[in-house]
């Protein structure tokens, strides 16, 4: 494989690969994208990965890799996305990692055994839009330096061991993140933060769509800015987004935090890819059964509901359908289903 010196993209996903990551791959210095997701690869990630000095996308999710993340990865200055979720990786993140990754936009390390502190230097990765570190063993205060990530959109630090600084009973995290004007998702659930909710939480970005601080022992009063939404943005546009996610969860029995949704694959992307012809593959098997009556009509209705859910979850709040239209659309879907069922019953009766 190392002879393929002009190859730029190598993708072998969900192919049943076993054994160690082939060392010959790291001789293909022209590689820009390497994706070996969802195989049965084992062992450590070799230090030779640093030879891929043109690499932009690295995805080794849901394998069985172990050991520390090789330090040579942080020397690949061209890299834009590192995605190593759902392995058995361990060890700490280097204290100066942010200094070496000037082009990093997305960092997915969820579902491993990583520990230690989030380096303060992460703020130097100024292009970072997604920081995804849930289900690890990270400790210490969440660094205030995250406030310097001006392009940050999605921050997930859930299910770790983060705490609130003892000298600041109020959670300064919310105050510092007010500088992240593009932040849309903030998930810090299942951490022993045990702090006071500051009034400054109302100063978080107007683009914020989803906060999950469940099981953190947070105390205090929810300020009016959150309860009612400044200019109505949080109370209407964010509500409709959450409603769309709820519809997807109800019909698929999946959650956005499920392990299969890593890297570029999200619940929204998964649902969108199934439309219009593969909806039966993602819907809960208890809701749609090919052997039951009126199967085709029900599939059509569920497809319409999933299309509505995606309209609720448009990336831009301004592009989302409003709740009045959601209600009207659901009513139309119901009426169309009832009409199809009545027509089928009439046709069956006429044929008897």
TrEMBL record:
Keywords: Glycoprotein, Leucine-rich repeat, Membrane, Repeat, Signal, Transmembrane, Transmembrane helix. It comes from the Eukaryota. Its main location: membrane. GO terms for cellular component: membrane. Pfam families: LRR_1, LRR_8. It is found in: Membrane. This is Serine-threonine/tyrosine-protein kinase catalytic domain-containing protein.
């Amino acid at each position: 494989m190392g002879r393929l010196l002009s190859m730029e993209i190598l993708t072998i996903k969900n192919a049943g690969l076993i054994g160690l990551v082939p060392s010959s791959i790291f001789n293909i210095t022209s590689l820009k994208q390497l994706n070996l997701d969802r195989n049965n690869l084992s062992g450590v990630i070799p230090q030779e990965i640093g030879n891929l000095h043109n690499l932009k996308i690295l995805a080794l999710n849901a394998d069985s890799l172990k050991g520390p993340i090789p330090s040579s990865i942080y020397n690949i200055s061209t890299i834009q996305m590192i995605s190593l979720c759902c392995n058995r990786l361990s060890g700490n993140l280097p204290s100066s990692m942010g200094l070496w990754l000037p082009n990093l936009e997305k960092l997915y390390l969820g579902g491993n055994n990583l520990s230690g502190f989030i380096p303060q230097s992460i703020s130097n990765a100024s292009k970072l839009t997604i920081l995804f570190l849930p289900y690890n063993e990270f400790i210490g205060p969440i660094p205030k330096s995250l406030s310097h990530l001006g392009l940050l959109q999605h921050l997930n630090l859930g299910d770790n061991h983060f705490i609130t600084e003892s000298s600041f009973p109020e959670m300064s995290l919310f105050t510092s993140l007010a500088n992240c004007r593009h932040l849309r998702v903030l998930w810090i659930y299942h951490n022993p933060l045990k702090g006071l909710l500051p009034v400054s939480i109302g100063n978080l970005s107007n683009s914020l769509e989803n906060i999950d601080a469940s099981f953190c022992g947070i105390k205090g009063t929810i300020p009016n800015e959150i309860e009612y939404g400044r200019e109505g943005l949080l109370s209407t546009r964010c509500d409709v987004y959450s409603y769309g996610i709820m519809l997807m969860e109800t019909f698929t029995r999946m959650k956005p935090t499920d392990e299969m949704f890593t890297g570029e694959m999200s619940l929204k992307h998964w649902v969108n890819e199934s439309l219009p012809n593969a909806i039966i593959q993602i819907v809960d098997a208890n809701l749609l059964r090919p052997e039951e009556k009126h199967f085709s009509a029900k599939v059509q209705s569920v497809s319409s509901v999933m299309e509505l859910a995606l309209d609720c979850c448009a990336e831009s709040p301004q592009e989302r359908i409003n709740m009045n239209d959601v209600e009207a659309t659901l009513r139309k879907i119901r009426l169309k289903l009832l009409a199809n069922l009545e027509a089928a019953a009439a046709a069956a009766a006429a044929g008897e």
